[in-house]
Design brief:
single chain; two-stranded antiparallel sheet
């Protein structure tokens, strides 16, 4: 069972058991995808694996790799957020499908979305509306939008963070479940131990505001942080 402030808050609010279990499974799958990408020890994930027998059969999950095409997102030198987002998302898709889930991707290659949308909309809004429409037309149980973070004012900031919006009461529950899993993971890098120490953040983002199914945005790491950046750019960690 997950412990800590976030989980205690969820118990008081009596969250949906189905959402709690599904969210915990997805958090573990996302960590697995990140570990596959970064070549962290798979044993770290096994410690937190959900032990239920039902798997993810019958669940529909939308994965949204942020940015793409001309929109590279944040970056550091030649490292672009859009590429990291897609890499993690494709690995997450494969893990979820192996566990029995039906996965819908908003993109599977380096392209901008929504080119067929109304031409009077900006490129940015066409892209966002395509993502929201994909989520809302999917009949999904849950969605996850994958991004990569940056903080030029504080390069020491690192680790994964879950963002949520109160447009859906389940979003906050999901965010706390994911963040608890992220904060539990500890790994060694260059002789030092690292782990996340974040709380979920409330974000008034377009996708979170307009999606009609429960979902969150996950920022998988900070390109402005040396440790996160090295992990994300080294070939032997991908």
């Amino acid at each position: 069972m997950l412990t800590g402030t976030g989980f205690e808050i969820m118990k008081k609010n009596k969250p949906s058991v189905k959402i709690l279990i599904l969210s915990k499974k997805l958090a573990i799958m996302l960590l697995s995808a990140m570990i596959l990408m970064l070549s962290w020890s798979a044993a770290l994930v096994v410690r937190y694996a959900y032990t239920g027998k039902d798997g993810l059969d019958g669940k529909t999950i939308v994965i949204d790799p942020g940015h793409g095409g001309v929109d590279g997102g944040t970056g550091f030198g030649k490292i672009l957020e859009k590429d990291i987002n897609l890499d993690v998302s494709l690995k997450l898709r494969d893990l979820l499908e192996k566990s029995g889930a039906k996965v819908i991707m908003t993109r599977v290659e380096d392209v901008e979305l929504g080119k067929s949308e109304r031409i009077d909309r900006s490129r940015y809004m066409r892209d966002l509306n395509f993502r929201v429409d994909t989520i809302n037309n999917s009949s999904a149980d849950i969605f996850i939008s994958i991004h990569t973070n940056s903080n030029i004012n504080n390069p020491s900031t690192r680790g994964a963070i879950a963002f949520y919006c109160n447009s859906n009461p389940r979003n906050r529950e999901m965010a706390y479940i994911f963040q608890n899993v992220f904060n539990t993971l500890e790994f060694d890098f260059q002789g030092n131990k690292y782990k996340s120490h974040h709380i979920p953040q409330k974000g008034n983002y377009y996708i979170l505001r307009n999606a009609k199914v429960p979902g969150i945005i996950i920022e998988t790491g900070f390109l402005t942080n040396r440790v996160d950046r090295l992990l994300l750019q080294r070939d032997d960690y991908k």
